[in-house]
């Protein structure tokens, strides 16, 4: 596996309906989805509905691909509150368990940050909300240049449990002298 990853091309692209089987490899894995706010997909039909409905209508949701085969997903969701929060976006990602610890998530996050401030040029910052127990994802963000801002105690109620969240951010520096 390590050999393949070192020579593989990592790209980001929009999802296609034909990606459903690859999507199910990680979105149907409870080891991956334990750190997601959404539930594990157990049916291909539910996954297709998610791909057709949520992902295709999302303003910035991409497949993380190795040689054009999706092995994960990454998104930036612009805040929707006009006036107060419209200059913030939230990043989230999930990677197939077979690729954990290979640097792919870090590279994907860096790739997103290098383009999302240009594509969504009204954003001043991108935030990440990571479960306190998810140390691997915290390392990904730190390696990608995000700054740890603090912990929000019992901030999200997810999967029947109140969760502590670590907040990370990266700022848009393109408008600075």
UniProtKB/TrEMBL annotation:
<dbReference type="InterPro" id="IPR016181">
    <property type="entry name" value="Acyl_CoA_acyltransferase"/>
</dbReference>
<dbReference type="Pfam" id="PF13302">
    <property type="entry name" value="Acetyltransf_3"/>
</dbReference>
<dbReference type="InterPro" id="IPR000182">
    <property type="entry name" value="GNAT_dom"/>
</dbReference>
<protein>
    <submittedName>
        <fullName>N-acetyltransferase p20</fullName>
    </submittedName>
</protein>
<dbReference type="GO" id="GO:0016747">
    <property type="term" value="F:acyltransferase activity, transferring groups other than amino-acyl groups"/>
</dbReference>
<feature type="domain" description="N-acetyltransferase">
    <location>
        <begin position="10"/>
        <end position="164"/>
    </location>
</feature>
